[in-house]
Amino acid sequence: MRPPGLRPQGRPSRVWSDAAGTARLALGPAWRIAGGVWGRHVRPVLSVVSVLGWSVLAAAVLLWAAGSAYGWQEAKAAAIAALVLFVIAVGFILGRSSYGVVLDLARTRVAVGDSAVGSIAVSNTSARPLLPADLELPVGAATAVFHLPRMKPQQVQEDLFTIPTARRAVIVVGPVRSVRADPLHLLRRQVLWTEPEDLYVHPRTVALAGSAAGFIRDLEGMPTTELSSADVSFHALRDYVPGDDRRHIHWKTTARTNKLMVRQFEETRRAHLAISLSINTDEYASDEEFELAISAAASIGRQAIREQRELDVLTQAGPLRCETGRNMLDDMTRIVGTPLRKSTVDLARTLADTVPNASVVFLVAGSQVTPTQLRSAAASVPPGVRSLAVLVDLGAAPARANIGDLTVLTVGDLSDLPSVLRKAAA
């Protein structure tokens, strides 16, 4: 028992925790108000001052302090001169601009190497002339600068620009911003006029022109050895079993044999493509080879969608959207290669589990994948499914080989893809 007269003592950590909770409750409203004032009024003002501007202000304070402490009139004069420059810079950024800015990208989706053209139309929407100014347009990591002349009321100034599309990428274009700054760039004031837009630079693709038709049947699908009571491929007749659909009774045979006979069908499989695209950069000899693999997979997928086939595309990072060709190419554009533990073999196993009803499987990988790995990957494909491996080897001659039931197609250039697919179909 606790001796009489003694009170329990709380732990120091518990005391501090209670005190902190009480302080948060008491100061929370004031802190939120202070944060709102900072975000709406103080931060925009401070953001106008550039790094050079803050350096000049700090130098002015230090020079004035040194001049006052040691009686250096020269230091005080330099401090005053710095402050005068700062005050003059304020005059360059004062005033309000009234622009109407329209950012127009002719196409928001282009292929690598195609022209991406856009325009900026700027109009003076105020009732007074506007002084010359600069417009900045961020394009990815770069920034384009457009110089605006003195503009009369309702005057429109239009500029065209071209965006390089040398590599597959999602390029953020914008927002367009007007900039006012003093000659020394102590102060810099900018106003945003548009929202940013995404420009998709899709991978290059090649038209296969129905090359896949040689190993993918039409919509009725490929007959299998599995029997079904209802399908489109007739197989044989059998005795009627209670529960069978009476619509499938073959009446002529029933009348001849004096017992009910029903039609039996071979189960057919609708053409369903599955593509596994390895994004493991350890399986590619170079970045160019990786880009070639993406282009090859995109070309096959695009042709499948054009032929209205069912399509699934899978990478180590997960499945891609394949509802439309646009969705698929957008996701292809976002792919980022990285060294991974999961290889083409692991991806093939995941594909077999994810798309069990596939009729044709493409394994797209780089030149660093060995025949042993391809054999292991092919072993993961269910029996009865046509499997093909597309190995990209930059500069290699197009070739076709077999590893067991797996057809291996070597592609050295994107233009080789249609011809090797025709060889596979032959």
From TrEMBL:
The reply to whether Membrane figures as a keyword in the UniProt entry is: yes
Protein keywords: Membrane, Transmembrane, Transmembrane helix
Q: Domain DUF58, which positions?
A: 237-340
Residues crossing the lipid bilayer are: 45-65, 77-95
Question: Pfam families annotated for this entry?
Answer: DUF58
**Alphabetized InterPro entries for the sequence:** DUF58
In Swiss-Prot or TrEMBL terms, this protein is called DUF58 domain-containing protein
